[in-house]
Amino acid sequence: MDMGRARPKDQGRESRWEKDAMTVEIAFALVGGGVLALLVFAGTAALTDMNEVGVVLGAVAGVWRVVCVLRRFDRGKGLGR
Q1: Alpha carbon distances (Å) from 21 to 7, 11, 16, 54, 67
Q2: pTM, two decimal places
Q3: Which of 27, 55, 64, 73 has the most other CB atoms within 10 Å of its CB?
């Protein structure tokens, strides 16, 4: 540890642009996941009488979409995009 040297002010912090980009990406992931979950639930409910299965499949599809979008954003961030 070199406690005598001053560190740059923004070292280890994200810029305002990066924070805004992450906020937009999170909102996109949540909206996309919610729409996908709703579509899967509605499709399952229309084809069968098992609403519980539709809820589970919709939830799984929604969470899967959110995770995929956020992981893609994280990989892109590591590549300098």
Answers
A1: 26, 19, 9, 33, 16
A2: 0.73
A3: 73
Give the Cα separation of 10 and 5 in Å (integer).
15
Q: Which residues of 14-40 are buried (b: 16+ CB within 10 A; e: fewer)?
A: eeeeeeebeeebeeebeeebeebbeeb
In a structure prediction context, what are the per-residue pLDDT tens digits for the chain, which is 81 residues long? 555 565 555 556 778 888 898 999 999 999 999 999 999 999 998 998 888 999 999 999 999 999 999 999 988 776 655
A 10 A CB-CB count for 46 gives: 8
